[in-house]
TrEMBL record:
<dbReference type="Pfam" id="PF00155">
    <property type="entry name" value="Aminotran_1_2"/>
</dbReference>
<dbReference type="GO" id="GO:0008483">
    <property type="term" value="F:transaminase activity"/>
</dbReference>
<dbReference type="InterPro" id="IPR015422">
    <property type="entry name" value="PyrdxlP-dep_Trfase_small"/>
</dbReference>
<protein>
    <submittedName>
        <fullName>Pyridoxal phosphate-dependent aminotransferase</fullName>
        <ecNumber>2.6.1.-</ecNumber>
    </submittedName>
</protein>
<dbReference type="InterPro" id="IPR015421">
    <property type="entry name" value="PyrdxlP-dep_Trfase_major"/>
</dbReference>
<dbReference type="InterPro" id="IPR015424">
    <property type="entry name" value="PyrdxlP-dep_Trfase"/>
</dbReference>
<keyword id="KW-0663">Pyridoxal phosphate</keyword>
<dbReference type="InterPro" id="IPR004839">
    <property type="entry name" value="Aminotransferase_I/II_large"/>
</dbReference>
<dbReference type="InterPro" id="IPR051326">
    <property type="entry name" value="Kynurenine-oxoglutarate_AT"/>
</dbReference>
<feature type="domain" description="Aminotransferase class I/classII large">
    <location>
        <begin position="26"/>
        <end position="384"/>
    </location>
</feature>
<keyword id="KW-0808">Transferase</keyword>
<keyword id="KW-0032">Aminotransferase</keyword>
Amino acid sequence: LNRRLAEFGTTIFAEMSALALRTGSINLGQGFPDADGPEEVREAAVRALRDGRGNQYPPGPGVPELRTAVAAHQERFYGHLGLAYDPDTEVLVTAGATEAIAASLLALLEPGDEVIALEPYYDSYAACIAMAGGRRVPVTLHADPESATYRLDLDELRDAVTDDTRLILLNTPHNPTGTVLTRAELTAIAELAVERNLLVITDEVYEHLVFEGEHLPLASFPGMRDRTVTIGSAGKTFSFTGWKVGWVTAAPELVSAVRSAKQFLTFVSAGPFQYAVAEALALPDDYYTGLRDDLRAKRDILATGLADAGFQVFRPSGTYFITTDIRPLGETDGFAFCRALPERAGVVAIPNAVFYDHKDRGAPYVRFAFCKSVDLLEEAAGRLKRL
Ligand code: PMP
Ligand code: GLN
């Protein structure tokens, strides 16, 4: 393994899911729903397979049906904010958001460029920045025990920008903290990007999973339309994380750059699923609000269970995840705690320290996923209470 990748090892999600299997534990580690997405969307995939749509290499940018559906989705949910994309030149289908992140960084970074990312950050960010030869510059979202939320210090963000900063890699709603950046924060980020002439890659895969407040795409802020690469994913929005269908929306030059990298990573993304996701994106508003309301109720069940078990709960405004502080349980090391938890309680969780460069800042925090059945969440809460 080369020096660029040596520090990354095996992803925490693979490690912890294997541990869950080995110990027969309830897996609240890796974020995937335990119920598949809508039947009609599965049927759409079967139809595409049977009818021979997408069984051979689809077009590089994605099948036109899906690009059109992505553009229509952006217009439907964000048109009132002035956001619209041309399906032919401003949409690119990717193999999940993961490839969108990798291809965007590989396409847009020169070796040595600095990338600012909000810490704790999703694990693939650091590895992809490294593969692209960039240098990551973490800006910490600070845990605020008083309000039980995370806060972005805008002065720290501004101070992190140097002459070598090429781009900001943003994530809202934010994994693992569940933070949804506010209009004021996004306005400040947009002003900074314009002032310092930065690009922004914004990972908005949890755009529909916002329980309080509202998701505002960064691209809709003044001056951002043409300097922002926005990333979405069918995995989260339709509960098909195994299909690996994602997309990028951006100005034509940026999409074309990302496509240059994508064509040598996967060339194209799996065909039949693209047709099915095109149908999924057109589901009525009820579908989207139903998914959100269901997950909000699950968040509340797990949050209550974790608080009853003695954790300090940082209440997430969005995503699949609750971050907790384990210090009220007399624990300080999230890694040790998560490695022991399957034996002690039959539950698997993720130590947030893996998402930090400043490991000490992340040490006492542990993430639990609530995209699971109510029965499973209640069983997990019961087990944790016996800790
Ligand atoms: N970004 C974030 C913040 C995520 O949490 C995930 C996966 N859970 C991804 C990207 C990857 O998405 P995909 O499965 O579509 O590759
Ligand atoms: N994004 C999911 C999570 O944060 C996991 C995806 C993966 O396993 N790479 O849990």
